[in-house]
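Today's session is about reading a structure prediction critically. Students often jump straight to the picture, but the first step is always the sequence itself: look for stretches that repeat, for charged clusters, for runs of hydrophobic residues. Only then move on to the predicted structure, which in these notes is written as discrete structure tokens rather than atom positions. Here is the chain we will use throughout the hour.
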Amino acid sequence: MTALFALATSLLWGLADFGGGLLTRRIPALTVVVVSQAIAVVVLGAVVLATGGLHEAGPELWYAVAAGVVGPVAMLSFYRALALGPMGVVSPLGSLGVVVPVSVGLLLGERPGLMQFAGIGVAVVGVLLAGGPELRGAPVQRQSILLTLLAAFGFGSVMALISEASTTLTGLFLALFVQRVTNVAVGGAALFVSVRRGGRALPEEGGMEVVRGSLPALAFVGLADVAANGTYSIAAQYGPVTVAAVLASLYPVVTALAARGVLKERLRAVQAAGAGLSLIGTVLLASG
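Below is the predicted structure for this chain, in token form.
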């Protein structure tokens, strides 16, 4: 069960990252974050009311609030990095955040078996190779690397926090709702400050029409990100966080494949090798 939900997390995060990266090439990154998360708030609010999730409110929701504060910083950093550098390089570097939840799991006493330890090592190497950051690739600006590493730490922190925010399914819906409300509040405040300082909330060409036309894509990015947080939380509750976190970190493979299929980005030999190693690591983890 852990492997199933964690792999679903990878699929959802990979597609959300690909969609978000595409959108930030036309729409300011802060606007992408705020609008996509606002759509998620509306949907999650309806789900919480329908399931009676408000009765699950408790002190553990502070973990969701913390995740909601960290999340927009990580997303904004990551989207800006995707806009500056090739997806095939930025995405796998972003997955380095897996170190945070894995370290938390080990500190809490989790001890994966020998087969799972081997799977973790193989999968992490595969994730890094899947990006294909070889010398012949497009150059990545230093700013893009720094933004990606900041995003990685943020994503890892969100993974660790959201897994502690609930113990039941209805409680998970409430936790995700609180997280997204916080996302919108923090992101909205940052957007307001940015505009006051001369930044743009709308694209230079097309303005609001571009945002309206992108609403389906923005909704997909926001809802896929929410669903990924949910499936990861379930995966972490069913099994070891160390295993769930590594399997969930395979999303760069999905992003690379999406870039190959839609943008026709060439999948180099090292990327194919990385994807293969990721799959081998997945099998080792699932069989451990």
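Discussion point for the tutorial: DSSP finds 13 helices and no strands in the chain.
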